[in-house]
Amino acid sequence: MKDTELAEKTLSCERVWEGRVFDVECRRVLLPNGDTVRRDVVMHKGAVCVIALTENHCVLVERQWRSGYDGVTLEIPAGKLDFVGEDPLSAAQRELREETGAVAQRWIDLGEYYGSPAILSEKIHMYMAEELSFGDTDYDDDEIMQVERIPLSDLAGRVLRGEIPDGKTQCAVLRAALMCGVTPEK
What we know:
Blueprint: E1 9-18, E2 22-30, E3 36-44, E4 47-52, E5 58-66, E6 71-75, E7 78-80, H1 88-100, E8 102-113, E9 124-134, E10 145-151, H2 152-160, H3 167-180
């Protein structure tokens, strides 16, 4: 079956909730088999994440409380786009500097990540940053975090052992490990 044969056609769309970070739409869609169903979609303007590698292959990570998870997570630096259409690389550079104080000379696009495409429109642009220099951080008012450096091999091992629950971090860490030829620690 071709992808075009799987496409749903939106018949109507109503924004049922608007928030600071996301909105919620209720859509009526026509399925390829002719049935009509409701789809609830969380609309998000997009985000970025950065796997920042030091010269000795350590990754800058952040420990912070996440309300949706109801606990502390270990994640790579990330943040939302300020507006629809913002250049993702500029946003990644901003987030890395604000959250870790790091500025990178070399940036590698690692692709896009969709955390829950059935219900969430958020597209996370993933980058790897290298050749780092450090200055001051500039956290948002609602950000409280601890920045650490963990060897890429150790972090990749933690991902494979199921110790890192954050999906974007899992994906970016494993991509970076493969690209850098790093073997995860057991």
